[in-house]
Structures
1.
Amino acid sequence: MRAWQVTGLGQPRDVLKVVDVARPEPGPGQLVVRVRATAASFPDAMMCRGEHQLRPPLPFTPGLEVCGEVVAIGEGVEGCQKGDRVLGAAVLPFGGLAEYALMQGVATFPAPAVLDDAQAASLLIGYQTGWFGLHRRARIRPGETLLVHAAAGGVGSAAVQLGKAAGARVIGVVGGSAKAAIARTLGADVVVDRREQDFVDVVKAETGGRGADVVYDPVGGETYRRSTKCVAFEGRIVLVGFAGGEIQSATLNHPLLRNYSVVGLHWGLYKTRDPAAVAQCHRELAAMAAAGAVRPLIGETLRNDEVADGLQRIADGGTVGRVVYVP
């Protein structure tokens, strides 16, 4: 089969090469799918550079989020059969930027019929992270104010939709007028173009000085530090990534004196520690998709010769919504 492989660490456009490799075979608890769509992600780009906590041995094929057709099933996998259209998490080194991918049975679910292949591939990590972040970690409540950074990106756009579905008032922060328009179409009640406005001032003005009850931060660095200036009493800042390049660093006297919480979220831990919760989360997301409450935002699709450049644009922060590989 043809696959995009990383043979050395570096920028995606420099290290991703097309190769011919053997199709993977499923082990216990695994299945193989013919890839219909793979949602490329910032973690994929980080793995190319060797900067992610997941460091698969070289060579490997990136692509963590896959929608595919089941072609082989390993021992112990239940709930699916050959020919099923599914979405789920790939098992590296056989990721989804290839003709076939290896997937985890515990993190593979039926693809909702209302979503096309690109949308289905995009319903996994970003939306599960948003659901666990807002509901399990932040315990968001109807009527609260939710501040979402990078609100037009793959992760942030999911949080905007999930926040609205939870009954929150959503303030989305973006960079540029084009992204601001997208955040509005996603349902954000207030949109802040960080190039034109200070989101701290806007949040305080919109909440009568009280601040945001929940802050969803996939950016880190200065964005996190500024967020601590506009989080409400007993507010919660959810750390879900550091796409800005600088890992969040907390000065703990500040939450102590201001009575707010800083909580982390690594969705991958739930796959091993609470797989039943992951399955339940998918059922809720599928129901929301069927009701039209969530719909993954697809910014662009990539064909075979466009993968390396597409992943580079993700690494450089120049994309909107999800970038999806369609073989």
2.
Amino acid sequence: MTKSIIKIEQLQFPWQTQDPFLFCAFHNDSYPKGNGKLGPDASLSGRAIGSDFSGKDGWSMYHGQSVPGFPAHPHAGFETITIAEKGLVDHSDSLGAAGRFGNGDVQWMTAGGGVQHSEMFPLLKDDEENPLLLFQIWLNLPKASKHVPAYFGMLWNEDIPVHEHTDASGSKTKVKVVAGTLGEITRLAPAPDSFAANAQNEIAVLMIDMEPNAEWTLPVASSGANRSLYMYEGSSITIDGERMNNMQVASLHANEATVLKNGDQPARMLLLQGKPIGEPVAKYGPFVMNSQAEIQQLIMNFQRTEFGGWPWPSHSHTHDPKSGRFALHADGRKEIKDQTEA
């Protein structure tokens, strides 16, 4: 291995991450045409409806019964960063916040002391397929922030800055800066109590697109930061001359300038970086605390309060099929990005 590379390994499901991240769920579903009711125009026989992760015919229903997705469920003690590169997500939560986002948008939610939310994947197109490409990254919270108020924030695709680089051969690399610093771009999390809201934590979430044969050098961060590079589309790249194939992850030294050289196909990668929290991690499903005793207390709290209850008509709530991308925030503020599906 070169001096930049700690190790290269095959990706698991969910994707393995380094502290301060907990994991990354990668969803790449080739959903068929819609059936006019936001579900797939296809037979659901042979699927374990309610818990379908089969990937049958190139897609899954997950926990959805008629619309694919994840009906209402709780979270506490961490954050979710949901990057919807293709397709749409209908979000609803116990704060009263809601939204439809996708096709490059990012939702950033700090669960903190507790929130319920649902994430459904409405298949709006009845005359063509409805592909979905989505990442949900779980970012931990330190003990001091485990019980901060829950918060829902949006980063709209057209507002997310993109860094462009053209190498000596004329080949281009585009880097979408969801979080972190790159050149003159600095992006902090939209959630006020996020671990990424403090620049000293060096959180970076970058979406990297490289043309065939493009070359680009990752910027240097501090030696205290963990850095992982995930390849999810393309054939292979070289990292300082060492080959990494599609659906592999490289753990890198963040304080080394790392040269990426793409192969003969377009390549897409995700980079996650951050300083480790370095605290004990106790996990139970959707709850992440520092000890099992805290987990038990959190479960009892959820049983008692349901984190504010569920204000929507259904645990699999979806929005008006005619609606475009929008966000309804917990304070009643509403953003409308377009009137029809993007």
3.
Amino acid sequence: MSKGPGLFTDIGKKAKDLLTRDYTYDQKFTVSSHSDAGVALTSSAVKKGGLSTGDIGTIYKYKNTVFDVKVDTESNISSTFTFTDILPSTKTIASFKLPNYNFGKLELQYFHDHATVTAAVTNPQSPSIEASATFGNATFAFGAEGGYDTTTNSFTKYTTGITVRNPDWSSTIILGDMGDTLKASYVHHLDQLKKSAAVGEISRRFSTNENTFTVGGLCAIDPLTTVKAKLNNHGKLGALLQHEVIPKSLLTISGEIDTKALEKHPRFGLAISLKP
């Protein structure tokens, strides 16, 4: 694939990952294994409140094809097939669920040095069409995405965004939620290995006249331990500690408190990911 502007979903992804990725307030346990034949087996269990769920997944890679199949505790089967370069500079993704025959998605992605275009059709019984286009290069990109429901003849989403980035920092502005939310973010890496970073994000929701300002950061205490934290103007303070217990196996402890309502119980989460 070309090293162009990337997918539209990549716009603002660095800030989103710093502020949301790995934060969990449930109990999650995941075990993964890999074979030399290109097969990966993953089993996970999640406890949320008094409800426990889980799934078993298998990923098989063969040349330019990836097969991903998951079965959950309710016997639902989710399958995703990814084909690369069926046509030059393209990726085709087909996904469906069983026994829910009403869900299915076929997506085509095209990558160019200065543009990326995607088109997808979902739900065969009541088709919805989604499309996105991104233009630019690895330093500057702008684009838009939209969704249209053919059953109701109405738009389900439209979003536009622009980003400027280099190895040390990235800045993004996104107009989303069908024009109701304007979000701006800035990420700055504090070291060459990108193991420490600071992020700031401000969001404006026009329908409610609500502003949300969030600051956060990532810091590597040592080669095996990472700390993240975030705080917004509504008083929500979150933090996590992630430690590599053994190579590729992570222990993550997360917590969140409302500094403006300390009488509320804080939230805590624990995630263990083992990769033998």
